[in-house]
Write a structure and sequence with these properties.
Layout: H1 9-12, E1 24-32, E2 37-44, E3 47-55, E4 60-67, E5 71-77, E6 80-86, E7 91-96, E8 107-110, H2 113-141, H3 148-176, E9 190-191, E10 194-195, H4 199-216, H5 221-249, E11 260-262, E12 268-270, E13 278-284, H6 289-305, E14 310-316, H7 326-336, E15 343-345, H8 354-359, E16 366-370, E17 376-379, H9 386-395
Parallel strand pairs: 1-7, 13-14, 14-15
Antiparallel strand pairs: 1-4, 2-3, 2-5, 5-6, 7-8, 9-10, 11-12, 13-16, 16-17
């Protein structure tokens, strides 16, 4: 079935806002050959509320609704969901194609520019999706070919080009009419895992739409909701930018950022004090089962190489709210797992660890291998491959 736009919980957070209209009756006429039942629902900023179930023997449905302020509605018929908009005091006509085997069901709509734009957004994304599907089908034909990797790389490039072109087409709609409430249906749209107009890359478009609709619909619940959501989006984008900067600072060959944290006695230990040795910076925690499972192998590697110029700096992420005694659990894990190296540090702040923020750590275990000069040579090291890396580094 045709994947028409619908307001998922994610999309609801970005539901649009339109010109405030005075109270009035909107009349909806639906032609849907072969359909006997249609559901009409209201799209609130945080919920979908069914309003009525319409029945017809001839595929023609009519529905009148009293509108207090500009709002979104949703029509559900067999195999199709159609979101649309009303300013109040309008006549909206929807014609739905009959169900046919092997064909996606489409529709036409008129009555206001916002509903027409929702349809336009759907068509743009739908057509791009069909194109992407064709690329996948082409690749699958050559799965057993000797040229498979080259073909896949070529089609991946085409996929990325299509994503970029589709995003540009959607942004052009915003430029054309920033105050059109339907613009907010653009944000959730994606192809594969790639969002068409992401806030990280195009925050200016989010701000442009917000500014326009807040002027056009200052008291509309959808407008107010999006305005509040945008503040959180800005915070998320700022955090993502900061994380990206930190990750870039962890590039191979770059100096490892300093770590200065207290050990179990309160003495501050610095990563820079270990310069001259090859250091594995190991981010772990007593509560982290994969970390604890990897410790026996790390202990063996340390014992094999500790006299050759290798050491470990263990940075604990203990300090979660649910830990009754983070310090004791940390020290007990060190003893139980036989972590005999002297460089154990933690500020017992859990995920808020100062070193974790510096290194942009989002999951543990995570390791960074640092050479004798304090430069990063590897990240997220596979312990099975670590001995070979140490042999090379310590021989130089």
């Amino acid at each position: 079935m045709r994947k028409l736009l619908s307001l998922s919980l994610m999309a609801l957070a970005f539901v649009a806002c339109q010109k405030q209209a005075g109270p009035g009756q909107t009349s909806i006429r639906i032609s849907a050959e072969g359909t006997n039942e249609i559901i009409i629902a209201k799209l609130s900023p945080n919920a979908v509320k069914n309003l009525d179930t319409l029945k017809s023997d001839n595929g023609v449905f009519t529905y009148d609704i009293q509108i207090d302020t500009a709002d979104f509605l949703l029509l559900e018929a067999e195999g199709i969901r159609i979101p649309f908009f009303t300013n109040g005091s309008e006549n909206i006509n929807i014609t739905i194609e009959p169900i046919m085997d092997g064909l996606d069901r489409n529709y036409d709509i008129n009555g206001n520019k916002e509903s027409i734009r929702i349809k336009r957004i759907n068509d743009i994304v739908y057509d791009a999706g069909k194109y992407i599907d064709s690329l996948g089908e082409y690749i699958n034909q050559y799965r057993d070919s000797a040229n498979f990797m080259a073909i896949r790389a070529s089609k991946q490039s085409e996929f990325e080009d299509k994503v970029d072109a589709t995003g540009a087409e959607l942004r052009a709609l915003i430029d054309e009419d920033p105050a059109n409430m339907a613009n907010l249906f653009i944000w959730p749209q994606s192809l594969g895992q790639m969002q068409m107009v992401s806030a990280e890359d195009h925050l200016d478009y989010y701000i442009k739409v917000d500014s326009a609709i807040m002027i056009a619909y200052p008291d509309n619940p959808h407008a107010v909701n999006f305005n509040k959501q945008l503040e959180r989006i800005k915070e998320q984008v700022a955090a993502q930018s900061e994380m990206k900067a930190r990750q870039e600072a962890l590039a191979i060959g770059m100096p490892a950022p300093e770590i200065s944290l207290p050990d179990s006695t309160g003495q501050v230990r610095n990563l820079s004090d270990l310069k001259g040795s090859v250091v594995l910076v190991d981010f772990w925690a007593a509560w982290c089962r994969p970390c604890r499972a990897a410790n026996p192998m790390l202990v063996k590697i340390y014992n094999d190489y500790k006299d050759k110029g290798f050491t470990v700096l263990s940075v604990s992420f203990d300090g979660l709210p649910q830990q009754q005694s983070p310090r004791n659990e940390w020290l007990q894990a060190i003893a139980q797992d036989g972590l005999s190296w002297p460089n154990h540090v933690s500020d017992l702040q859990g995920w808020s660890s100062a070193a974790g923020r510096t290194y942009g750590i989002q999951a543990i275990p995570f390791t960074v291998l640092v050479d004798q000069n304090g430069n990063i040579v590897a990240k997220n090291v596979n312990l099975a491959e670590l001995p070979a890396q140490l042999d090379q580094l310590l021989a130089s």
